[in-house]
Amino acid sequence: MSEQYDVVVIGGGPAGYPCAIRASQLGFKTACIDAWINKDSTPAFGGTCLNAGCIPSKALLESSELVHRAQHEFAKHGIGVGDVSVDLAKMQARKTEVSKALTGGIKQLFTASKVTGLFGTGKLLGNGQVEYKSHDGQTQVLSAKHIVIATGSEPVNLSKIAPFDGDRIVDSWGALDFTEVPKRLGVIGAGVIGVELGSVWSRLGAKVTILEALPGFLPMVDAAISKEALRHLTKQGLDIRFGAKVSGAKAGKKAVTVEFEQDGKAQTEEFDKLIVAVGRRPNTNGLNAEAVGVKLTERGFVQVDAHYKTSVPGIYAVGDVIGGAMLAHKGIEEGVALAEQLAGHHTQVNYNAVPSVVYTAPEIAWVGLSEEQAKAAGHEVKTGSGSFMASGRAKAMEQAAGTIKVISDAKTDRILGVHAVGPFVSELIAEAVVALEFAATTEDIALIMHAHPSLSETFHDAILLVDGRAVHAINKPKRA
């Protein structure tokens, strides 16, 4: 006899566990199944983000940035620390502790919200049933009115070019668990994951070469901002090569030999370790989705409508597995929105106001359209760029590098996008998200008082510069 639930969520990552919690809060009897197992063989909720992605990478980024600052910035503050040593094992242990604290917190939230958390796999059986198989092999059938697929994504494996071997050639998870700093590190892919991981190990002493097949850096970011960000990262020592198309990688006992073509010339490089960071693909392994009638797209994503309904009544999907921006916060919002829709609420996720962040130093963040995208969409645009060089707070922090750029519609004054590189722009971008969500104009933000001295003043300056109204920056000449 099957166990009866109102909602069964398959996947306990950033899309799945919030969906389960919110569903339970709304009165649904809810279960959440998650298959994640860490390398120490312990199961955990939180998916890739908390266990092998967002959180552990940010822990290492923070630690490595402190190393870099101690080596290169502290002396400017009058702080002498002598030779800076790195205990990588302790750094890695701290990273793991941070992740475990958060994944353990999900279990506590499940208990408090009366969600039944189940470690193991979920398989669609059709007719509102899910086969739950625990990690020790025991099976049970769960029945539910609503079944939610939130199985996330996994790193793309270039199996024919640079197959993962777990040692020399690794994915993003493996790159977070190095036990020693490689002298020569190669990275395939100069996207968000590639540059973040490259930054970590570069700060800790690795010579990092990033091979990117595309001709430019972060094409989704405003051209002026991506150009400035690239300049800062290159100055820090990252060797980023564009138009470099990798044709093969062979792991030996002591090194990885990588073959690639750049500018029409065949080239070869040797690295101690190679990270493959060329994107992520939907994880539907073992789900039995197509067998029960759930349609997938050509790229393997679960096909859904505007209300996250699949082709099978009673089965829904949210998060990375449905495509779009593969971001934890996007998955969270989708999971919560779906739970509320199941309860009859009217909810909507605004996909035009999804922030993105690269946690390098300086950070890169953006929301909405770039100037290039806005023009391509037919907007007549006006822009303003505020520099952190003019920020008293940034100078006091010894981090006065970067720019915030505002893109607005010249006819309506409505803000279309904000793109930035600089200190803590991961936090500053939230104000821009609010502005887009409320359809704010540049004048709306110009009238808002910002604390002095603060980094947020740079956003205010950028807003004022759109119309040549800044008093703490040199205004660009007005158009005729």
From TrEMBL:
It is found in: Cytoplasm. Residues 5-335 form the FAD/NAD(P)-binding domain. InterPro entries: Class-I_Pyr_Nuc-Dis_Oxidored, FAD/NAD-bd_sf, FAD/NAD-binding_dom, FAD/NAD-linked_Rdtase_dimer_sf, Lipoamide_DH, Pyr_nuc-diS_OxRdtase, Pyr_nucl-diS_OxRdtase_dimer, Pyr_OxRdtase_I_AS. Keywords: Cytoplasm, Disulfide bond, FAD, Flavoprotein, NAD, Nucleotide-binding, Oxidoreductase, Redox-active center. GO terms for molecular function: dihydrolipoyl dehydrogenase (NADH) activity; flavin adenine dinucleotide binding. Gene3D superfamilies: 3.30.390.30, FAD/NAD(P)-binding domain. Residues 354-462 form the Pyridine nucleotide-disulphide oxidoreductase dimerisation domain. Signal peptide: none annotated. It is an enzyme of class 1 (oxidoreductase). Its EC number is 1.8.1.4. The active site is a redox-active disulfide bond. Belongs to the class-I pyridine nucleotide-disulfide oxidoreductase family. This is Dihydrolipoyl dehydrogenase. The lineage of its organism: Bacteria, Pseudomonadati, Pseudomonadota, Gammaproteobacteria, Nevskiales. The gene is lpdA.
